Amino acid sequence: MKVNDLLNLEVTDIALGGKSLSRQDGRVVFIDRGVPGDRVVARVTRMRRAFAEARLERIEHASPLRVAAPCPHVQRCGGCRFQDLDYTEQLRIKQRQVNDTLQRLGAVAEPPVRAIVPAPETFHYRNKMEFSFHPGAEGAVVLGLHERGTFDRVFALDTCLLPSELTVRLVRLTQGFAAAHRWRAYHPSRHEGVVRFLTVRHLSATGQCAVHLLAARDDVPALDAWARDVAALDPAVRTVSLGINRSRANVALAEEERVLVGDGLLVERLRGLDFEVTMNAFLQTNSRQAEALYGEALAAAGLERGETLLDLYCGTGTLSLLFAGVAGEVVGVESVPEALVAARRNATRNGIANARFVEGEARRVLREWARGERPQRPRPAVVVVDPPRAGLHPRVVARVAELEPRRVVYVSCNPATLARDVKDFGERGYRLDEVAPFDMFPHTPHIECVARLARA
To answer: What is the third-level CATH fold of 93-120+282-455?
Structure first.
């Protein structure tokens, strides 16, 4: 087997992360596409000692698990790649991946994994989408999504089944306006051009919508006219803004913001509380499933009246403020200053007085509390952690264990790092009692979990 060889393969499974799995002559072959049961021809693109990677060339025999994908972009889009796999099978695979990962990386012989919670909707569930501008032929501007596996190729969006219909209408309006006014698209490797991203946030509970244009500088032709057209498209559009990102980093984050219409603010309602949402603020992109996930986290904590809860990586305070309804005190820790400002505003907006927020990286804050270098060290009965995909630093696990909470609730967006951290907690006296997987993002490889650990 070597690079460029054509292989006749049968897809046997989907690996964590989304690649299709097959074997040839005892070697694992990861294929970029395919559903279990497909017999395919694939071309080898990379060789490693223990495995090979291949690109699907054609399907010789389709699996009975394969269904017709409703999106016309499914073959080239890097987004919801599992549209052609039966949804029940998607859920089965994701639940098995959580179970197997806990066994393999977490050293949990019999993982206590509950049945995965299906998404309430399998399409039109995203409350936020980012679309990329890219230079097209003869100076034309392309606005759409990245082709699968690339950062420098974008196809023009015709439709998308993940966000709201209003989101797609706003993209189409902007496509036409950009062409008519000869906007110059930014090139991510040449670092030329102006317009970079279009972000639309359309909240499902309140119906409020914000549209953000991100550019390398502010000389966008007819910018104010575009903003007026966008705001006039639908009454749901509450605010329109321009974000500036002059850096070479190809990310849809603004270094500075200029509000063009409205006040730059939306409000979403989750489990009875109102949360402010600004351009750069993090909010779970599936609001309805987020409510179910937060409900599971509340149940897993098992807080009793008057107890203290510590919420690490608290962001804008969503979980902290939900826990405040049953806790005596909630202490949230967050490293992003803007997020903490929003968390405090959200507490005020909801009339919550028993939540306080501490600025700092979790590892440093915990170390300073342990050494007596920072005042107001909490004595939590429960610690909640909601880290990024990289999971917890080993010293964070150690410091949490030193606090001796009776329970740890771990909200995870990566089963692999969850399993690793569960093993670390186990070595420090905490057993895994239960894991509840949630399908937040149907047709994608992503899995969210709420894990409950108890002091042994």
So the answer is: Rossmann fold (3.40.50)
Q: What is the mean pLDDT of the chain?
A: 95
CA–CA gap between residue 21 and residue 33 (Å, rounded): 9
For the chain, the structural domain boundaries read 1-66, 93-120+282-455, 128-270
Catalytic residue chosen out of the listed positions 71, 77, 160, 413: 413
Q: Which CATH architecture has domain 1-66?
A: Beta Barrel (2.40)
Q: For 187-237, what is each residue's pLDDT tens digit?
A: 988 889 999 999 999 999 999 999 999 999 999 999 999 999 999 999 999
pTM of the model: 0.94
Q: Is 141 exposed, middle or buried (0-12, 13-18, 19+ CB in 10 A)?
A: buried
Tell me, yes or no, if 413 is annotated catalytic. Answer: yes
What's the CATH number for 128-270? 2.40.50.1070
Q: How far apart are CA 190 and CA 303, in angstroms?
A: 54
Partners of residue 308 on adjacent β-strands: 329
> Distance between CA atoms of 449 and 297, rounded to whole angstroms?
10
Total number of residues shown for the chain: 456
Residue 40 amino acid letter: V
